[in-house]
Amino acid sequence: MKIAISATGNDLCSTLDARFGRTSQFIIYDLDNDSYISVDNEQNLTSAQGAGIQSAQTIIKAEAEAVITGNVGPNAFRTLTAGNVDIYLGTGLTVQEAIDKFKNGTLQKASGNNVEGHWM
Amino acid sequence: MQISIASGKGGTGKTTIATNLAYFLKKQNKTVTLLDCDVEEPNCHLFLHPTWTSTEKSTSKIPLVNMSKCIKCGRCGDICHFGAIANIKDTVLVFPELCHGCGGCSIVCPTGAITESEKEIGDVQTGTADGLEIVQGLLKVGEPMSPPLIRSVKKYANTDDEFVIVDCPPGTSCPVIESLKNSDFILLITEPTPFGLNDLKLAVDVVNELKIPFAVGINRSTIGDSTVWDYCKEQNIPIILEIPHDRHIARAYSEGILLLKALPQYEEKFADILEHIKEVLPS
Amino acid sequence: MKELIIISGKGGTGKTSIVASLANIFDNKVLADCDVDAADLHLILNPDFKIKKEFWSGKTAYIYKDKCTQCSKCQELCRFDAISANFAIDKIACEGCGVCAYFCPQDAIDMRENLAGHVFLSNTVHGSMVHAKLGAGEDNSGKLVTEVRKHAKQKAEENNIPLILVDGPPGIGCPVIASITGADNILIVTEPTLSSLHDLERVVNLANYFHIKPFVCINKIDINPSKVSEIVEKCAELEIEIIGKIPYDEDITKAQVKKQSIVEFNQESQAAKEIISMANELKRRLNI
Questions:
Q1: What ipTM goes with this model?
Q2: Domain that holds residue C99
């Protein structure tokens, strides 16, 4: 199973980015063989909104089944849910710490968006 | 004839000029419709106290997907420039607040799975005050896109009327352009201050782009400095209205009393505006 | 890091004059002018326009005359009346949806990116300032506002600055929504007029929609004392705190003509004193 983590850098030492839509990249971590890749979170938007939807599409394409991030708005939540991606919330962690917490089941699972729609 | 009242800066007196001009024309036995296109904050009604005779919901088109006909080809997501429709695994998601209503997805869908439904963007209210027809748009709170609502308001303009007066929103971007479209004449209201001058220049840039005849009106003309006059002279822009800073005007305005009702001596100023417009527009 | 956004609903209530004064009073902050339609803060703060960044946004259709066979398919499909009878694109009407380009049987239409404005990263005597200019008649001011806020945040983060002070746009539409979403503090500047009272309620509703509790300041209080009481009542009803009452002062216009804020121009004026006391209140509330 693969999980995605919104991150400020491209390795496991980088910190978790609380932003989902505007994170610069995602670490896609494969739990089956403890390997990972980083994926640029490229945005191609005409409006100031919609970043969360595109981020969600990016990690669905990368075949992640769960994502760890800080904040998820309503559109990102809808998109992730449609893509059968579970959402876990964390803050102030490194990517490695987030993965460890995910493995031992101590991350909180989001049952809805935890922030309102926003344009940042 | 459509006369639009606009300004780059907010709070310069657009609504005061628009409502009083409409009132003045009506008093001259002209047929007049006043369109309040400042749909984010429509205020003409506060001075004219119209009796609203009808309220219609204004809507914009959004796609409606029938999943039983969808073959998941992904073309709807590809054509949308606004990210308003997304193909996710076994489903198609629509994000109404991102949709501009271009209809591309429904046209491109090969199986007819996408039809269009409507989302509410605000109300268009029509009413009368002392024989003056008034139409205003009222944008739904939280709805970002006002141009479609402005378009709906403008559809209510009675083409048989001798005058259509448009009160525009402040600024220089899309809602202003939408309001100014099809104007025969534009009156830009400003104040003689550095902010007023700066915003007037921005508004002049926009109006020049639209190639519509225009003039400037200076409100609170006795405050500030002379740079607005200097600029207009240099650019050959006629100044056809000057209203002094007058506590009585501010007071009447604050109470929602029409300037010409409180201080009828200002009628002449509005007569002058019409004289000027007649000169530049021979028809 | 805190962000304080000054908005008003109705234009011309004195937002920018108040922001310019606060810029003078608050110590360590980044300034941002989000009224990208009609930016005025630079007229007082005199930024150096140090870095100019292009703002590309949205697309406009372009028809290659040599490929076009005038089949009129594009005109039929365009919902924005952006293609004239002689197949010219009305750049202002074009929404950038790309439907014409997608369906053109001759492949004669391109969608071209717009240079919609510029963002400026500047220095002022009161600290860094981010501001912008939207091209005449361009749309997408909301996205430009987002750019301005993004750069202001970056600047604050890089230099560990605790406050971003934002001059917001009037209204309740796209640029205002872009200015306040995700922000933690809003100051609404209103004035004792019927129009402003009416707009106050709509802008408070907008803030509530985004779960932000605003503060209110009443400017030009002596225009109409009875309307001041109505605002006070309205704020009580909406459960919003009034943290400043500023008198009308001709010195504010005089200061503007001198390209100064009122607190620089005449610190002893009643308006300046009230603004200073409001600023102290804000410092306490925001814990800065």
A1: 0.91
A2: 65-107
